[in-house]
Structures
1.
Amino acid sequence: MSNQTKKIYLDYAATTPVDKEVLNAMMPYFSDKFGNASSVHSFGQEAIAAIDQAREKIANLLNCDFSEIIFTGSATEANNMAINGLIQNCTTYRRSSVSGINKLHIISTNIEHESVLEPLKELERAGHEITYLKVNKDGFISVSDLEKSIKNNTVLVSIIYANNEIGTIQSVKEIGKLLEKINTKRKEQGLNRIYFHTDAVQAFQFLECRPDWLKVDLLIFSGHKIYGPKGVGGLYVRKIGPIGFIGPIIKGGGQEFGLRSGTENVAGIVGLAKAVGLVFKNRETRLKKILHLRNQLLDYIIKYNKDIKLNGSLDPSTSLRTSNRLPNNLNIRFPNISNETLLIALDQNGLAVSAGSACSARASKASYVLNALGLTEKQAKESIRITIGKDTTEKEIKKAAEIINKALLNFKNLRI
Ligand code: PLP
């Protein structure tokens, strides 16, 4: 590839570039308005005012209370905080109505992000019980399976809104409605509330995420997946009762309403709020454009490669092909071609895509998400993830398809 040829990036589920408008909003908070938000003097006041404004903006857009938005250092941290903060509150501080029960039950899925799965595994090791709902071959859990797995000691349901590898969208609103009904009954029976957590990191850019609409108690989002900065995440925590239902995981100076200590990342928080604002302003336009490009790319690839398989749900017969899958996501299996080899060949020709989530790709492990769909290890290792961004052009899509088709042709010729 010549140095003049612009590389094509189609790995927007791994991370996105910071939007120029976001960067401009952040810039003053590095060197000019650099105060510590906890300081009493005017530098500190400037910083806390910026954080307050950011919080207010996000709260308004999500239609929730100012105090229900907590800033963290990443969505990974926010997921850990939601899960461990709740369990710790139930067990150590015995603040919840489940006090007295030592073994708690949590319901989740087998396709959560690692930042949910790992804390859950640790809780399991500590003696709690976790039900991992299985997904079907298209990547969806069954709401009735969820309902059947509820127990008296269930305290948390944690369901990923849209999966980072296959883009499948779970019925979060339906689950929220169901849990609301169940919680009303449980209250009458003197049982504890079941809290509902969703990891909305990948969904946030495209789907309705207002917590009241979804009926969730905890909702997570991340700056760098929505053209904001890396190293900043957000957590919505429903205000229930006077003392709240989650406790702090990171303890210290008591920032973020005592829930997340540590000097605030003012520039990052300002950037996150700007990025969230742009999502809400441009959601429909982004969605339509990206969906069109995604479908175009799929058509180009299918035209020359009839034997490819699509992982996750996507109905090729409908013109929109939206069926419960994020509009930016393609996860394709190329039978008998190793994704590692293909990825390198594509990268050498100027196209950056991924072999699954950024974490499993680096470790070169077969994806547990694809395994959960029923794919064998070999099949999972033949799959690549392509994710399209808001600034991707038709020209890039055409070029990307050419690079993919050429690489596949080379592999096929080599095999003959
Ligand atoms: N949840 C999902 C679904 C993700 O895709 C990611 C990032 O890949 C995360 C959580 C973690 O986000 P962060 O990079 O902000 O820690």
2.
Amino acid sequence: MNTIENCKIVELPKIQDPRGNLSFIEEEVHFPFEIKRAYWIYDVPGGQIRGGHAFKKQHEMIVALSGSLDVFVDDGLNKKVFQLNRSYYGLYIPSGIWRQMENFSTNSLAFILSSTEYLEDDYIRDYDEYLTKLKKKL
Ligand code: TYD
């Protein structure tokens, strides 16, 4: 089973240039899965919370391409918060972790790379159900 210790901040390449900086991300190099889907969260009104759920199978990589947000992770035993506020850091979250995104700054843009297509069956949206499913290893 994955724990919050398996959630990792990854520093991405940053090519500094007087014309503007450039960063990039590559599957299997900066995170350990093949990309099946990318989605992004933006125009988040102040105080809103996104993503209070866990995935049974999906792994993901979250990059704050613009602005900042906090990602709260929880494995049923321990909790941790990662502050994403640079476009050259990604947060890798493996499957089986409860995660929630909060404190989106104005104009923030959260870009998420996912190891699966959109599968509603892969979501666990109820925290008590998550704790129960954890005991059965999801
Ligand atoms: P959801 O992942 O539930 O967002 P949050 O966890 O932040 O509340 O997605 C919100 C809605 O968007 C949900 O009805 C499903 C839809 N959706 C897709 O159709 N495809 C996708 O790739 C994603 C991420 C969501």
